[in-house]
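Pasting two entries for a bug report.
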Amino acid sequence: MAVATNPASGSAVRRATRRLDRSALYIFTALAVIYLLLPVAVIILFSFNDPAGKSNFVWQGFTLQYWLDPLGVPGLPQAVFLSLLIAFLSTIIATALGTLIGLALVRYDFRGKGTTNGLIFIPMATPEIVLGASLLTMFVSIGGPPFFPLSAVTILIAHIMFNISYVVVTVRARLEGFPRHLEEAAMDLGATEWTTFWKVTFPLILPGIVAAALLAFSLSIDDFVITNFTAGKTQTFPMFIYAKYRIGIPVQVNVIGTIIFLVAVGTVGITTLARIRADARARRA
């Protein structure tokens, strides 16, 4: 005996299923974002905490006194300044070298290109503790300045080394699908290769370069494992936090972390807008 189906009922079920699918996607995305941002929210919240003792783990009350004196802990200004200096220098050097390597790997064919591609990923794939121990062994075996004794210079060398790989990968992603006809048009109009690079190529890949630089800066300023192996008696901001962990992390650490986070988010937002505008100009061209 055949059973008649109601077309209207089947359509309603399909619509309900589609709504559920869309809602599930939004809910999952919201939960993932909350999961990622929850630790950052705790850092920001406890930067306004007024703890009774040295430990900043229990909410005691709201205060702005630590925001008014964010470097008011002995040793913290020097550690923050050194971390910022090393991160800035390693970012500049690694971004310059990584951009040139990325251009070479995408634009040119040369002997050993495949090997170079493989070697670029080694620092990214190697566990940090192994990389740090290997760098320590190399610096000690060299046994002379600037590689030994360990200092801020050895930290800088190590950070440049592992940052280059991330810069190359990021810049290469930007160069894939690059509109080469714009460069050809510029050279047809009489521009030299150098002029074409600075007037056409560089502005279009600049958002990718900035993104790579931001990634390198973030990796450098918060690195602890490799830095701990290559620092010697030098103390960076992450090492300062680790040293204070046993006796109580001061609230100023949360303040500095919040400031770095806000600056990073603002810079990423500006970079994203610049990339969107560059892509729009490229499509119009």
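Entry 2 (this is the one that rendered wrong in the viewer):
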Amino acid sequence: MISSIMDILALEKKYKENSAQTKVRELESKLTDFQGNSENISEISSELSYYSELSVKTSQIQKDLKELKNAKEMLEVENDHEIKEMAQEEIDTLEQDIENLDSDIRKMKISKRFSSQDDDRSTILEIRAGAGGEEASLFAADLFRMYKQYASKKGWSVNLLEASISESGGYKEVIAQIEGKNVYRDLKYESGVHRVQRVPTTESSGRIHTSTTSVAILPEAKEVDIEINPQDLNIEVMRSSGAGGQSVNKTDSAVRITHIPTGIVVSCQETKFQAQNKEKAMAILRARLYDKKKQEEDDKRGDMRSKLIGSAMRSEKIRTYNFPQSRITDHRIKKSWFDIDSIMNGNLEEILKEVKDGIINQLLKEEDKSE
């Protein structure tokens, strides 16, 4: 609440300069003299849109603050009752407008600060069964289906890169590429351990079992992001393995690649063609190396933002799916949803938005405490 001239002066100091205007001119000049690819121009356009809106809101709050200061000064010296009433009405309106603008600007800056340069990238999705045996692998398959259906609703494409099928028909491990606009931005907070509580179909006594499955969301890396020395790779080819029948190839088409410096091992046997499997395996390797590089950079940087975001995106147990109670609980934001069937069918919009907003709000509180 703006209760005094001192409050106005504090806000005037806060918004003394409109640095966004300078940034808008710089970006407009970049676009005019632009030479590069479509990805670069998209990034510049996005930045220009942000700073243009920020500049407009900053100019408006500067104008409102000046008018509010004049109105308060008039209220103090004016003796005419009607004029004082008009001044007070104007003050009430301006104070509300200023509070709304200040809130809008803060939200814009918060969103900008906690965004990632990788937000517009496609992703590598990795899901692995954890504790719980066959039930864990079945839940891994359920999660993969959930993300596939959400991707379909968003108009994204899902390309299977590697899968290891369990005896029950679930997934011990499944890796896929999800391509589309802002895939990483929407899914990045899904990384972590997902726990399921339900009665397995194989359980005759009807006892509830608890199983876990891990999910990793990695931004897709391009060759320019990660330089891989061919001499650092040990590439092996072999026959595909599987449940038998048509799923097993008769040629040495499966590929396994070991990155010797890090010990990271990736494999792919999803197609009948060795070259395609090698390409897919390299995509997985680049994503893992890029993610490793980012984590190391965050650790070296050591700032509060990096630590808070890193911990939020690499949490251990992040969510529990309780089927008997039709409840999904996200432990990071301590919130539950009670439409489990709909969510498991890919209706993730609400949960993803609330998780993102909740995590950012918590990070801001922690950051405020540290200041």
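Dev reply: Rendering is fixed now. As a check, the viewer should reflect this: Residues 38-77 form the longest helix (40 residues).
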